[in-house]
Amino acid sequence: MTRRPVQSRFPVPLDRVNGRGGHTGRARSALAETLRPQAPLQHAAQTAAQQASGRAAPSGLGLDSAAVRQRMVQRLRADGVHDDAVLNAFATVERHRFVDSALAIQAYEDTSLPIGLSQTISKPSVVARMLCLLCEGATARQHGHLGRVLEIGTGCGYQAALLLLLGRSVVSIERLKGLHDKARENLVGHRHGDLRLVYGDGRLGHAPRAPFDSIVAAAGGEDLPPAWLDQLAVGGRLVAPMQDAARGGQVLLVVDRQPEGLVRQWRDAVHFVPLKSGAE
Ligand code: SAH
């Protein structure tokens, strides 16, 4: 993936980045349902649930072995990922448990995979890039600790599981009920931190738990939803794919809320599924 030079770097008032004013009040009404994952189950029960839903890894493929994830971590390191906390999260979370059993064999290749309902899980190198951008550079957070995290686009829950290892708490929003339910099932047993899965329109953020130290979107829009900036804590960082008219494609946008204002940087060219409005 290519790096592009910083296109704009400026402390600016909120409405210069938004193009609009604050909209925090809208967020409360629109979230249809707030759910917590169920209490952790024993491993056997978890495996049974995954088998019943067709997402258990086929036995005999060696995917349960830590070595298979270590090889993925070595490739990420060779590709320039040097954040130990991020690499450790990739070494820990079993990506093959988040995809269909037929695709599990590809889970540790650097490839995006379908997760149903026309959505995809991003390839590990792109997820790693997003997490590294979140981890680096924020003044009010300790390196490698993302604090209170908001994720937009839960999908199958894989990135939420990584974020749980990097942050103090994670709120993850998904607009497709089918995927919201699937993620909840996939995340049973991932109780390393405080996780809240929300079914609703992530463009509205999650005002009840705001402000957030880290905000990350897994779907790309035309503009930055005002609620995300409203809900970004001072010292916090937002990373989101966004359409860049000048470039004619999606680019990762990084926004830091510094005490004196918002600082925006355009980074890597990317290709994420679209950020949509409303919930289905
Ligand atoms: N982080 C996910 C990636 C999922 S793909 C994972 O690890 O699997 C992006 C997801 O964003 C899709 O599931 C899509 O339905 C969701 N999405 C798109 N627009 C959204 C919105 N406005 N609010 C919440 N989720 C949204």
Detailed description of the structure:
This protein has a single domain (14-19, 44-270), classed as Vaccinia Virus protein VP39 (Rossmann fold). It is α/β, with parallel strands linked by helices and 280 residues long. The longest helix is centred in the N-terminal third of the chain and has 13 residues, at 66-78. It has helices at 14-18, 24-30, 43-52, 66-78, 84-92, 124-135, 158-166, 177-186, 226-230; strands at residues 33-35, 113-116, 119-121, 148-152, 169-174, 194-199, 212-217, 232-244, 249-258, 261-270. The strands form 2 sheets. An 8-stranded mixed sheet has the order 1-6-5-4-7-8-9-10. It has a two-stranded antiparallel ribbon with strand order 2-3. The protein is globular and about 50 Å long. Helix 4 (66-78) runs antiparallel to helix 5 (84-92) and helix 5 crosses helix 7 (158-166). Helix content is 29%, strand content 24%. Strand 2 and strand 3 form a beta hairpin. It is built from 9 helices and 10 strands. The model is unreliable at 1-54 (pLDDT under 50). The structure holds S-adenosyl-L-homocysteine. S-adenosyl-L-homocysteine (SAH) is lined by residues 115, 119-121, 152-153, 155-156, 158-159, 173-176, 179, 201-203, 218-219, 273, 275-276.
Concise account of the structure shown:
The chain is an alpha/beta fold and 280 residues long. It has helices at residues 14-18, 24-30, 43-52, 66-78, 84-92, 124-135, 158-166, 177-186, 226-230; strands spanning 33-35, 113-116, 119-121, 148-152, 169-174, 194-199, 212-217, 232-244, 249-258, 261-270. The chain is globular.
